[in-house]
Amino acid sequence: MKVLLYFESEKALQNSGIGRAMKHQMAALTSVGVEYTTDPWDDSYDVLHINTFGFNSEAIIKKARSLGKAVVYHAHSTEEDFRNSFVLSNQIAPIFKKRLVSLYSQADAIITPTPYSKSLLEGYGIDLPIYAVSNGIDLNRFDYNEEKVKAFRKYFSLKEDDKVILSVGLYFERKGILDFVEIAKMCPEYKFIWFGYTNPVMIPKPVRDVVDEYPNNVIFPGYVKGPIIEGAYAGADCFFFPSYEETEGIVVLEALAARQQVLLRDIGVFDPWLIDGVNCYKAHDNQEFISKLHGIIDGTLKDTKVEGRKTAEERSIESVGKQLKEIYESVLK
User: Fold this and answer.
1) In the prediction, which pLDDT does 276 show?
2) Distance (Å, rounded) from C-alpha 324 to C-alpha 25?
3) What is the end-to-end Cα distance of the chain in Å, rounded?
4) Which residues contact 310 (CB under 8 A, 6 or more apart)?
5) Which of 37, 41, 129, 224 has a 20 to 30 Å separation from 289 between CA atoms?
6) Computed from CA positions of residues 242, 252, 201, 188, in that sequence, does the dihedral angle turn out positive or negative?
7) Alpha carbon distance 7, 60 (integer Å)
8) For residues 209 and 183, is the Cβ–Cβ distance under 8 A?
9) In terms of DSSP H, where are the helices of the chain?
């Protein structure tokens, strides 16, 4: 069995969650001995595993069908997580949903990261087998490394007693960036660092305003990779992710794998695999976020790091590889 992993606009999306998901798929297939190619001109594959919905996506599906290949669509995107992101995204969202339904419906089966996103797709009226399979996590990459932690603290000139609240994401209102900055204003005793970047031309004015002018305890370093961000995951005092909508949230898996204390907005995508007070903490609004941030940093709330790491381990690259192999085999029967 050979799989074509198709990823349109790879350079533009390589720093996104979808970009990391693609890398995880490659590692996952390698871990279970499934041969793959990323060359769309290589017709020797058996299954097309398509990850994107750009202009070329429909053409690659039609070609696969003409060659008698099976098609698996990886549904990373929904109408819900398209909203409150780019300029005009809310106005375009209904059209975007129609395109997603049209493309996804051309597959033999659909993969999506969580039971929550599966339920959304079922609600669209898509009548195909839909499998909830995590995007997975490279556990070894996020094992504790003291040198990476030192590199992170040196990079930001952090003092020994500085308490650091970390978040990672694009500059989207959906990601909770406005709440992140507002909470930072109310917690001047902590440093807040938001890793990630989006071209300001693409984001609405309220978001542009906060990334242009923000409190002095907030840092927007942009997109940073390698030892610095890996050291941040392990060396911060809390990973705070106030997102309003996700299909999974790979950055949450990264924080859990790094044995970090994790604080999330209490939204459907994190049920049932993340449990408040067990492997993470959840909150509903800014006041509750602030209360739990204090509890996490002061140590008055129970440590959830060990259980969080176990949750990440259940979503290892190897586990994902086994599930993908089973799905491919089922569509080939």
Assistant:
1) 98
2) 9
3) 12
4) 279
5) 224
6) positive
7) 11
8) no
9) 10-13, 17-31, 57-66, 79-82, 89-104, 115-123, 146-155, 177-186, 205-212, 227-235, 250-257, 286-298, 305-313, 317-332
Per-residue model confidence (pLDDT) at position 10: 59
Tokens of 74: 């990886």
Give me the pLDDT at residue 230, please: 97
273, 311 Cβ separation under 8 angstroms? yes
**SS3 state at 132:** strand
Rounded to an integer, what distance in angstroms lies between the CA atom of residue 100 and that of residue 116?
Answer: 17
Residues 70-104: b if buried by 16+ CB within 10 A, e if exposed:
bbbbbbbbbbbbbbbbbeebeeebeebbeebeebb
Q: Which residues 6+ apart lie within 8 Å of 164 measured at CB?
A: 158, 190, 191, 192, 193, 232, 235, 236, 237, 238
Query: Which position has the token pair 């984001």?
Result: 203
In sequence order, the 6+-apart residues with CB closer than 8 A to the CB of 107 are: 50, 61, 71, 72, 73, 128
Confidence at residue 54, expressed as pLDDT on a 0 to 100 scale = 82
Ranges under pLDDT 50 in the chain: none
Neighbours of 114 (CB within 10 A): 22
